[in-house]
Amino acid sequence: MLTLNEAIFVLHEGVSSAADIDRLFKECFGHAMGPLETADLIGLDTVLLSLEVLYGDFNDPKYRPCPLLRRLVDAGLHGRKTGQGFHSYERSNESGSGDMAEDDKHLIREFISTNMQGVPVDDDEDLFASGYVNSLFAVQLVMWIERTFDFQLVGKDLDFANFSTIDAIAAFVDGKRTLAGGGAWTSN
Q1: What average pLDDT does range 156-161 have in this prediction?
Q2: Number of CB atoms found within 10 A of residue 102's CB
Q3: Per the confidence metrics, is the pTM higher than 0.85?
Q4: What is the CATH number that goes with domain 95-182?
């Protein structure tokens, strides 16, 4: 969270653009995505809430959320799930592959990879048995799915089987979408 917050401060202070900050992290540090893209993927509201908890618990100014982050969240700009954050996203049933389930799987893969610090995971690999996923990550994953795909998860939705693999998560999202009749967020 600190890297995300610091990157937001760099943007807030006019030192660099969002695109340049993310490009720097990808080209110079070898990250799969930049910190502002990561914040958009996680959800700016989730990032803000996490920073507020850290700041409240530790009372350390390094965790103080950047005012720009708070303004974006207050304006309803939460990143990919709302179509606008530090970058713009377009609501569409296609993101280039022509297959919404594959597009969803790509988003899920990005979220998991980002939160597992780039550790490669096969689509059919059991996330819980691998030891990569702990209870905190499971909660973050559920919150991210709810916000990204605009679903309310309750009761039997929270069965571990729905979240055991990337394939299972994508199938679960596809099934929920079929019931809800919604679309997917895709990047411009």
Answers
A1: 85
A2: 12
A3: no
A4: 1.10.1200.10
Predicted local confidence at residue 24, as pLDDT: 95
In angstroms, the CA 83 to CA 90 distance is 6
Tell me what pLDDT residue 188 has.
Answer: 38
Helical packing angle, 166-180 and 135-149, nearest 10°: 30
Q: 61-85 burial string, b = 16+ CB within 10 Å, else e?
A: eebebbeebeebbeeebbbbbbbbb
**Does domain 2-89 sit in CATH 1.10.1040.10?**
yes
Question: Among residues 172, 180, 117, 178, which one has the least CA distance to residue 145?
Answer: 172
Classify the phi-psi angles of 122: left when phi > 0, otherwise alpha if psi is within -120 to 50, otherwise beta: beta
- Equal fold, 2-89 vs 95-182: no
Which of 3-12, 36-45, 105-114, 178-187 has the weakest average pLDDT? 178-187
SS3 category, 186: strand
Contact 47, 1 (CB under 8 A): yes
72 versus 187: the higher-pLDDT residue is 72
Residue 8, SS3 per DSSP: helix
What is the H or E stretch that residue 117 is in?
none
68 pLDDT band, cuts 50/70/90, is very high
